[in-house]
């Protein structure tokens, strides 16, 4: 080796440039990773909210599918009531080795929380009347079960064959003379329910239609 041999390596400026480039790449990579994580968190939150709505709709479908027949309650008793932010119905309860009973079920929207309440199942129509009166006046018929806590609005309509979509779920009782031959037909009872739920901070709504009684 001669004295004139040159040593090869990086200069200080080259090292500083390389470090600067690596720092820029690291910052860009961190920002990209942070965006992916934030998007994943938001997506998981939306999926959880959607899953909660699906569970709420599934419970409503079960209750509407088992709604009591009007003939079971007798004249003068309602089995369905629709108000702003509230759906109340009477459903049939089937249990193994037990007689068929009925109970009042109430869905309410309270301060953004969609809750479901149910009364004790009974065969006593007086007990049913008491539970119905409490439910339709926002009284307590049982402990509330929160189905979703991020609901901004709930709109409900019922379907009647003679009126179409309406918010009037009642079935007016006809006088005895109306049952005579040639009298006008009885007002149609509701056969379907439409429930529209809107999550907070969202413009779109999720709408579901349920048949009343067995499909």
What key phrases describe this protein's structure?
3 helices, five-stranded antiparallel β-sheet, four-stranded antiparallel β-sheet, alpha+beta, 27% strand, 215 residues, 9 strands
Q: Write down the overall geometry.
A: elongated
Question: Main beta sheet: strand number and arrangement?
Answer: 5 strands, antiparallel
Rounded to the nearest angstrom, the radius of gyration is 31 Å
SS content category? alpha+beta
Number of helices: 3
Please report the total strand number as a whole number. 9
Please explain how this structure is put together:
- The protein is α+β, with helices and mostly antiparallel strands.
- It has one domain.
- It is built from 3 helices and 9 strands.
- Strands 1-2-3-4-5 form a 5-stranded antiparallel beta sheet, sandwiched between helices. A 4-stranded antiparallel beta sheet has the order 7-6-8-9, with helices on one face.
- The longest helix is centred in the N-terminal third of the chain and has 54 residues, at 12-65.
- The model is unreliable at 174-180 (pLDDT under 50).
């Amino acid at each position: 080796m001669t004295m004139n041999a040159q040593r090869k390596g990086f200069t200080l400026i080259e090292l500083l440039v390389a470090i600067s480039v690596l720092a820029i790449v690291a910052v860009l990579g961190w920002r990209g990773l942070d965006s992916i994580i934030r998007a994943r968190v938001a997506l998981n939150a939306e999926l959880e909210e959607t899953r909660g709505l699906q569970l709420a709709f599934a419970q409503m479908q079960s209750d509407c599918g088992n709604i009591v027949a009007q003939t079971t309650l007798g004249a003068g008793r309602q089995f369905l009531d629709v108000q702003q932010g509230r759906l109340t119905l009477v459903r049939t309860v089937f249990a193994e080795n037990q007689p068929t009973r009925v109970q009042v079920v109430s869905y309410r929207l309270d301060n953004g929380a969609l809750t479901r309440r149910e009364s004790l199942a009974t065969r006593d129509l007086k007990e049913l009347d008491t539970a119905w009166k409490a439910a339709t006046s926002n009284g307590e018929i049982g402990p509330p079960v929160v189905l979703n806590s991020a609901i901004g609005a709930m709109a409900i309509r019922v379907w009647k064959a003679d009126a179409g979509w309406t918010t009037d779920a009642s079935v007016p009782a006809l006088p005895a003379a109306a049952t005579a031959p040639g009298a006008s037909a009885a007002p149609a009872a509701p056969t379907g329910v439409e429930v529209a739920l809107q999550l907070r901070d969202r413009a779109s709504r999720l709408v579901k239609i349920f048949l009343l009684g067995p499909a």
